[in-house]
Amino acid sequence: MLFADKLALENRTKVRLLLIRERELNLYVQNCRAVGTVAALLAGLAFSSLIYTKMDYFKNSTEVAKFFYCTGNTICMCMSLEIAMATTAITMLGPGLALRGPDGSMHSAVDGILVEFEQISRMFNGTILSFVVVVVTYAWTAAGVNWLCSIMITVLCMSIIFVMQVRTMVVETNFPLKSAPLISGAFFNEDVPSSPNRAPRQAAPCNASCEQRMLPQPAAASGSSRVSHADTPA
């Protein structure tokens, strides 16, 4: 009876801890879905830009402009499709592992999604950069009004890239998720995969009583306690 009560208490405690970890899982899944949606939009724009290669102004452009225009669009489309496929797989397989995997799968799923999301973020930055390069290349094709207009568009795009980099640094300074040690939903120190640019993650503090409740008690201990009570004279 006591052993069954201890197991029931252990299971209830684990379920409550997993509910805390589930909040992290939902956060990362929502972030992946948002990035995947924007990446799919960029892939559609890059594919639409390839259709304009049949226009007369593109055929009358220089070979260098044609090369960079087609290359930039192809890189942007392929990277966007890769991001869309990766985010789709993460949002499907990550929660599936946490739900149907063995004991400890929730922690593996959450930490794995975080590592993959960092790689997707870097790839997404490269996708935006390639799309801006396509815009600059388009300004130097035969579609440009004159060389002065092409120079102004080039300077404007370079300024936008500079502003984007500055804003990224400001956001990372205001929200130091990479430099500050993050508190995860896990209550024990576990081997958590992390990016080399990210500070190590720390488990949430858990006192000795919490750890004692989480540890399974052997059946022999309960049996010995019953024997000792039985041997004690009334």
Tell me the layout of helices and strands.
Blueprint lengths: L1 H50 L4 H4 L3 H38 L4 H35 L7 H28 L33 H7 L4 H13 L3
Helix pairs in contact: 1-3, 1-4, 3-4, 4-5
Walk me through what this model shows.
With 234 residues, the protein is an all-alpha fold. 75% of the residues lie in helices and 0% in strands. The protein is built from seven helices and no strands. The longest helix has 50 residues, at 2-51. The model is unreliable at 191-195 and 205-234 (pLDDT under 50).
- Low-confidence stretches are 191-195, 205-234
Mean pLDDT across the residues is 77
Percent range for β-strand residues: under 5%
Q: Helix- and strand-based class? A: mainly alpha
Question: Which oligomerization state do the chains in this entry correspond to?
Answer: single chain
Written as H for each helix and E for each strand, in order along the chain, the element string is HHHHHHH
Provide a compact summary of the structure.
This protein is an all-alpha fold.
Features:
single chain, elongated, disordered C terminus, mainly alpha, 7 helices, 234 residues
